[in-house]
């Protein structure tokens, strides 16, 4: 028989209960992610800027050093022209050579760092032109040291100036490339910065929207819940009033008839007495149910836990259920697995739980007038543990899938049930669920509209069957002896 | 008299007149009766680019006297001397020039005036200066103690002998003697 388990409904109910916390957690996660994202992006932009700045400074330093040393090479050579002292000639020649070594090292470094073909070409051209200038410079120096000043000047003006100008042009080209690279890097950093701002703004906007949506959703859920609860409570009041009015009307009219002397015979009086007694008991049970539910909702109800024999309680409930006694031609198919171990729980609470299940099956069995009650040993969801499953089945109207997630909610009554004028308070299943959970058990439901339903109560097997020590169990699951 | 009009030439001549003491140059060998000092070869060095590897003592003398103006490759010869007072200079004056300081100066004064001398020697104050000068000038020739020679200059053979070879004539008192 196809059906739907209540586990999904339970999960959703649990999620709904913690929806505020979940949404806040989601917002916290989102804000954290956004924060990390923004920090990462800003850090990257900062590193880019630092790299760019360091690169610019290094490039400027390199080009400045190259320009200075090339000038120094030539300047020292020209200084040598200003004296006839051979010792000074040697000193200036030394200075010029030191400077040219620095230039050569700078060019080598530039070539080592050159990446683009243009950079490499210019670097090689600079290297070549510098070498050409140095050979002229060597000749000029030699002429100066030999004392041939005129020859030195002629050579410098003839070849030295031109070759040195070529070197200067090459250096200007290198500087231009550095400028281009710096501009490109600046543009990149600017673009990165703009991108970062847009990203952060977008993500913050999304976060803000998510926060607003979350707050709105929380408020709506709470509002809807409050409205639904108020509606259910109104319906409950109406339902209870209605449930009470019927027996009250019967009792009242019976009492009126007796008081007016309309009932004379002993037999008639007995019938009236039975009717009043039955209706009073029904009212008492109804009031008890409401009170027990109220107590369990306030978490004040205390159950006395013993090892309980399930078949015994089942037999007792089936014997004492008035709905079964009054329903003529109702067939109950009872199947109890022999040798069932006991469970731990409150016998009267469990009896009420079983009774609710059976009464519900009777109420919603439709025209089939058949219910099946089965108790057997099964495996619990927790590995290695056993449980007793008490399944009550009917072949009645069944429950729509959309209703399954609500049937355990207090005061809930299906619109279809209300339409069919099936009386009830909407508390039976909710109360049964609370009792089951207080005993460490739970409910599962399989149902199909028009085909019937199976409500199964899962109760864990008592660990120590011999233990008879009373154990007080609160409905919130805590225990005390 | 175009040469006299050249200010560099006049400056060089004046430098030669003013430089050094007129005293007799010290000889490598000590006076008789004195212990013979430790000697060290005096290398004749040229620029590394100079193709000349070897000279006879006679050729060397001609070059040092300024009677030869160019190397076989056409490069002008530039003679480099240390300032007066250096033992190396004293050895060169005595063993190559066979002159004392006064005769040396007179030789160049006279030769430059008459045009018999083509090369005016450049005077440097330290052996390191000499070495650097020769390194910078392709046609330069000078002298250094063997211990002052490095790879920046080239040592040439004199009469087919390198400094340190047996029979090598140019020897300077070792610095250890001080």
Keywords:
heterodimer, A: 481 residues, alpha+beta, Heat Shock Protein 90, 5-stranded mixed beta sheet, 4-stranded antiparallel beta sheet, 12 helices, 68% helix, 12% strand, rod-shaped, disordered C terminus, B: 178 residues, two-stranded parallel sheet, 6 helices, globular, disordered N terminus
What's the helix and strand layout?
The complex is a heterodimer of chains A (481) and B (178).
Chain A: H1 7-17, H2 19-81, H3 86-113, H4 117-146, H5 149-259, H6 266-297, E1 302-308, H7 310-320, H8 322-326, E2 331-336, E3 343-345, H9 347-363, E4 370-379, E5 386-394, H10 401-404, H11 415-419, H12 428-438, E6 442-448, E7 452-460, E8 471-474, E9 479-480
Parallel strand pairs in A: 2-4
Antiparallel strand pairs in A: 1-3, 1-8, 4-5, 5-7, 6-7, 8-9
Chain B: H1 2-5, H2 7-18, E1 39-47, E2 54-55, H3 57-65, E3 78-82, H4 87-97, H5 101-114, E4 122-124, H6 127-136, E5 140-145, E6 153-155, E7 157-158, E8 171-173
Parallel strand pairs in B: 2-7, 3-4, 3-5
Antiparallel strand pairs in B: 1-5, 1-6, 1-8
